[in-house]
Design goal:
The chain has one helix and 18 strands. It is mainly β.
Amino acid sequence: MWFSGVIEDIQDPSMLNRVRARCFGFHTDDKTLIPTKDLPWATVMMPCTSSGMSGLGASPHGLYAGSWVFGFFKDGDSHQDPVIIGTMMALQGEMPDTSKGFSDVTGNYPKSDYLNRSDVNKLATGTDTISYTPDSIINEPASPYAAVYPNNKVIESPAGHIIEMDDTPSAERIRIKHKSGTLVEIHPNGDMVTRNGNKWSVTTGNDKVHITGAMQVNIDSDANITVGGSTILTCASTTITGNLSVGGSIIAGTSITAGTAISAGSTISAVGGITGATIDSSNVSLDTHSHE
């Protein structure tokens, strides 16, 4: 016994993935005759990618009040044991009357910006936009979003979290976005853009980074780096435009040049010479030096 209907309640008190649906041809839209609370609980058939047991696979279902569904009654003519096997997208021309059945009583769905248009996500139909101001300091690239239906597979939650897997030719992307605006996006050429607020990163083992090109770090405020052991810096040259203060020794294999001051708690040593407006140390070692 097949039916189509509209979800009115997803708050299953037993948390068994059930919903209440008002079925066309079986239930009236008059809620005084059949209130939502008197509709039978319907079992939601999950795909085989979900085990349906022990929390394994995907759960819960993705239905919301206002979803149009299709299914069957397991008990035939009794019409008391419905099973929902899928949803049906459509184009809705007007908001439903929430005082009657076959609607979301809260009025949240359908969304007003989806009236008179397909229920398919706007990012999937290529009719939405992804806009943010790229950071000019690091020449951050803008999003290459150029989705063409039906290549972009989108998952969006009611809160506004979005996952995209876009197979649009020459615009292939993967994008994960939090409702706050924090996002990770992988571009067609493999470049990755990350935008976030505060960040904490913890590595419980070793951490190795290999950058085959150049690296640029811009910090608008202070930086504090604490190293429990030794730090070895191997480079062709090091340039510091402000003050340099070291609690121990400063030893350089070639030269040290400072725009203002060099200060060390013990020894400052450079084979190639030290140049700076002020040198402050108890022991300054130079190959040659002169005083005016």
